[in-house]
Amino acid sequence: MKVLVTEALGAEGMSILRQATEVDCREDLSHEGLKAIIGDYDALVVRSRTEVNNGVIEAGARLRVIGRAGTGVDNIDTAAATHRGIMVVNAPTGNSNAVAEHTIALILALARQLYPAVSLLKAGRWEKSALKGVEVKGRRLGLVGFGRIGALVAAKAKGLEMQVGAFDPYVSPERAASLGIELLSLDELLGWADFISVHTPLTPETRGLIGAAQLAKCKPTAFLINCARGGIIDEQALKVALEEKRIAGAALDVFEVEPAVDNALTGLPNVIVTPHVAASTKEAQENVARDVAHAVVDALEGRLPNSPVNVPYLPPQAAAFLGPYIDLAQRLGSFFLQWRGELANRVELTYDGEICEYDTRVLTSAFLAGLLASVSAQPVNVVNAAWVAERRGLVVSEVRHTRRERYASQITARFPGARDQNISGAILQDTPHLVCLDSQRLECQLQGRMLVDLHLDLPNIVGPIACLLGEAQVNISFVQMSRVAPGGPSIMILGLDEEVPDSTLPRVLEVRNVQRARRITLPPYQTPSD
Predict the structure, then answer these.
(1) What is the average per-residue pLDDT within 391-412?
(2) Are 253 and 277 in contact (CB under 8 A)?
């Protein structure tokens, strides 16, 4: 496995990558240079400078994962990566404290006029009387975005005895209240706060979130801080508001265009600017390097990383529990398609038991990946399975029952509207097992080569099929049989050591009362220690 790193990465992260992969570091690459060589790599690791657009992704024929050593992924075309089945991972927690500390530093610098104080004295001017600041104790801090970093800023601000409110439409009032934070609308927060700090990702919804109309709602004594992403604040509107003293000042670490050496905001006397260094601490750089390296290696080795961007996130405990079921779901999807021989326009997934305590969306994606892999012209995996299903017009639904059936947890899939077209699986003795097929109870491991047939439960069926396999030098490793009633439909599964030859399968179908016969192949099961 080959990994390309295009920007500086901490030593620990590089060590993790080199222990598991072959690593090339190319910090000198232009965009066209990246496109020219990316086809040779299985993974790409970047920071904020490298643009990973659709052209790069299309050129990355082998790409399986893109890692962003940091939080934001706005320099990565995540949608294009998803469509190609390329996992995008980041390091969302490694630099959170660094950004939160930088935010507090800028708040204090604005409040105490530290930047003009330093500049004036270095210029030989002792203007103490003109540099009267304010204390932050008792002042109101309004957070635009209350995710991980926003919550850290809130905790540190409370330590300074500030009042803290937040605007975040994705945070419940219960969670905010548990942290002692009042949730406000954006308009309410802008008019309420003495300091307004932005902590939301840059998305189509948040681009230009704070413009002229929003700035007009701020107090003339208010200060605006942005250590999140350039583009969330309309820079032209902010410049006008600062020049007209409709707000008192601003502190910016990020800009719409970087490097921001020609940005008009940097020359204003009531603005503090830093060159996108909020996350640039020794500790943060090592943290994000380590975290993204682990995520990239996990993805390359078939494990679900802790920080996926374009698949549902699973906390470590949930990932550990659901890992075997993700594998089970994919095997069930593959078996079901090979057995049915065709794809319906709807599929319903039913989850029973303990797995319902977790987010099952990743299980649905895994089932769809197995179901669609052999009928799609492009590679399908848990990253793009839902998108591929939608493009094919496949309607997917989920049903969850916390009750237990025969097993602690069970996954069932069926084609609605078709009688007895279903499949169920469970984890037994730590391995994925088929436990029901077309409403008939069976039990066998979901791995290796199999011959599965549907026949009427009448004499002289098993023997002739076994003889045909013997003639073809195909060894039978196990037999599983089920029936609805004597003389009725019966399913037989034969585990095989060799592939059934093309010439033998038609002869199996010629055996009297055999109605269907399918060769099914699944990958060998690997234990976690393999």
Answers:
(1) 87
(2) yes
